[in-house]
Write a structure and sequence with these properties.
The chain is mainly alpha-helical. Among the domains are: 137 residues, no CATH class; 54 residues, no CATH class. The chain is 77% helix and 2% strand. The strands form two sheets. It has a two-stranded parallel sheet. The protein has a two-stranded antiparallel sheet with strand order 3-4. Helix 1 packs across helix 5, helix 1 packs across helix 6 and helix 1 packs antiparallel against helix 7. The protein is flat.
Length: 428
C-alpha cells in the first residue's frame, strides 16, 4: 500500500510538471500571438490609405476612358446590326427562292398528275365504250361463261375481289410520274369498269338461259342503249385525253438579280462592302480607345494589388486572432483534460451498454414479429397453421377455431370451401 501511494504521488508530480510545462508553452505562444495581432492592426490603416488612393486613380482613368469605350461599343453594336440585317435578308431571300422553287415543282407535279390521270381515264373510257359496242360478243366471252358456272355470291365475290386488287395496284402505280402513272390511273379506272361489266354480262347470260329475271323486264336491251353508252364513253375519252393534251405548263419565272444577291448574305458583293465599312469603324474605335483603356487597366491592376495587400493583412489579422483564441482555449482546457477523458470513458461504457440493450430488445421484437407473422399459406387473411380445425363463423361447426370469408389459395384442408369456387365461408 505504501509503495502504491508513493507511485501515485510520483505520477501526480510528473503529471503536474508536464501540465506546468505545457501551460508555460501555451502562455508564451499566447503572448506571441497577441504581439502579431498588434503588429497587423498597426499596418492596416496604411494599407487602407493605399487602397483609397488606388480607387481614386482607377475612377479617374475610367472616366477618361468612358467616351472611347462608349464609341467602341456603339461601333461594335452597329457592325453587329449590319451583320444581323444581312443574315436576315439572306434567310428571307432564300426562303422566297425556296418557295418559288417549291411552287414551280408543285405546278410540274400537278401537270404530270393531270396528264397521267387524263390519259388513264380516257383509255378506261375507251375500253368501256368498246365493251358497250361489242356487248353481244363480250356477253358470250370465256370470262363471262366461267362466271355463269359459279353461283351469284361466288361470282360477285370474285369480281369485287379482282376489282379491289386492280384499285390497289392502280393506286400504287398512279403515285408515279410519266407512263407508269398513266398506267396506274388506267388500271384504277378499270377496277370499277370491268367488275361491273362482267357482272352485268353474267346477269344478261343468265336471263337468256332463263335462270334469272330481267332487271328492266326486257330480255334484250334496245340496240340504241349500247350505242348511247359507247357515245358517252367516247365523249369521256375525248375529255380525258384533251385534259392531258392541253394541260397548262408550269410557270418558270426567272429570279431577280437583287433576290439572288441578297441570298448570298454577307458573302455578297454589296453586303460585303457594308460589313467591311462597319468593321473599319470598329477598328478605328479600337485604336482611339487603346490608350485610355491601357491606363484604365493599369489603374485596375494597381487597385487589385492594393486590395490584395489589404485582404492579406485582414487574413493575417483573422489568423493571428484565431491562434490567440486557440491558445487561450487550450490553456483553459489543459487542467480539465483528464477529467474529460474520464467522463468520456464512462460515457462510452454507458453508450455501449445502452447499444447492447437496444440490440437485444430489437432481436426480441423481431423474434416476436416472426412468430406473429406465421400464417397458413393456403388461405387469405391469417389463419393459425397449428390449429387442429377451423369452421365458419355462425355455422354449425365445432371449431375449436372460427373464421369469416376467406379465399382458398392452396389446399382446402379445413374444408371451408364447400362449393369449390375458391371462396370459403362466403355469406348466403
Amino acid at each position: 500500500m505504501v509503495g502504491a501511494g508513493i507511485l501515485t504521488a510520483l505520477l501526480a508530480l510528473l503529471i503536474g510538471n508536464v501540465a506546468t510545462g505545457a501551460a508555460q508553452d501555451l502562455s508564451a505562444n499566447l503572448a506571441d500571438a497577441e504581439a502579431n495581432v498588434a503588429k497587423v492592426e498597426a499596418e492596416l490603416p496604411g494599407q487602407r490609405q493605399q487602397v483609397s488612393a488606388a480607387e481614386a486613380r482607377y475612377r479617374a482613368a475610367a472616366r477618361n476612358a468612358a467616351p472611347a469605350v462608349r464609341d467602341l461599343r456603339q461601333s461594335k453594336a452597329a457592325a453587329s446590326r449590319v451583320h444581323h440585317e444581312l443574315v436576315a435578308r439572306e434567310r428571307q431571300a432564300r426562303a422566297q427562292i425556296a418557295a418559288a422553287q417549291d411552287q414551280h415543282q408543285q405546278e410540274v407535279d400537278d401537270r404530270d398528275e393531270e396528264v397521267h390521270n387524263g390519259v388513264g381515264f380516257g383509255l378506261a373510257a375507251l375500253i368501256a365504250g368498246l365493251i358497250a359496242l361489242a356487248w353481244g360478243f363480250f356477253r358470250t366471252s370465256a370470262p363471262v361463261a366461267a362466271l355463269t358456272e359459279l353461283d351469284l355470291s361466288r361470282a360477285v365475290g370474285l369480281c369485287v375481289g379482282g376489282g379491289l386488287l386492280m384499285l390497289i395496284v392502280g393506286a400504287a402505280l398512279g403515285s408515279a410520274n410519266g407512263a407508269v402513272g398513266a398506267l396506274g390511273s388506267f388500271v384504277f379506272c378499270l377496277g370499277f369498269i370491268l367488275p361491273t361489266a362482267l357482272l352485268l354480262a353474267r346477269h344478261s347470260a343468265e336471263v337468256q338461259k332463263g335462270r334469272s329475271k330481267p332487271l328492266l323486264r326486257q330480255k334484250r336491251l334496245p340496240s340504241w342503249v349500247p350505242q348511247a353508252i359507247a357515245g358517252l364513253m367516247l365523249v369521256l375519252f375525248l375529255a380525258g385525253t384533251g385534259s392531258a393534251v392541253f394541260a397548262p405548263d408550269a410557270s418558270s419565272e426567272p429570279l431577280s438579280a437583287q433576290l439572288e444577291e441578297e441570298a448570298k448574305g454577307p458573302a455578297g458583293e454589296h453586303a460585303s462592302e457594308e460589313l467591311e465599312a462597319a468593321q473599319e469603324e470598329v477598328e478605328q474605335a479600337k485604336l482611339q480607345a487603346a490608350a485610355p483603356l491601357a491606363r484604365r487597366q493599369k489603374a485596375q491592376r494597381q487597385l487589385a494589388k492594393a486590395r490584395g495587400g489589404l485582404n492579406r493583412l485582414q487574413d493575417q489579422l483573422v489568423a493571428t486572432t484565431s491562434r490567440q483564441r486557440s491558445f487561450a482555449r487550450r490553456l483553459l482546457a489543459l487542467e480539465a483534460r483528464e477529467q474529460r477523458e474520464l467522463e468520456r470513458e464512462e460515457a462510452r461504457a454507458l453508450r455501449e451498454q445502452e447499444a447492447q440493450e437496444e440490440v437485444e430488445a430489437e432481436e426480441a421484437e423481431e423474434y416476436e414479429e416472426e412468430l406473429a407473422s406465421e400464417c397458413d399459406p393456403n388461405y387469405s387473411g391469417c389463419l393459425d397453421p397449428y390449429s387442429p380445425d377451423y369452421d365458419c363463423e355462425g355455422g354449425s361447426g365445432d371449431g375449436p377455431d372460427y373464421t369469416g370469408t376467406v379465399t382458398v389459395l392452396g389446399e382446402d384442408h379445413y374444408g371451408l370451401d364447400a362449393d369449390g369456387d375458391g371462396t370459403g365461408c362466403e355469406p348466403y
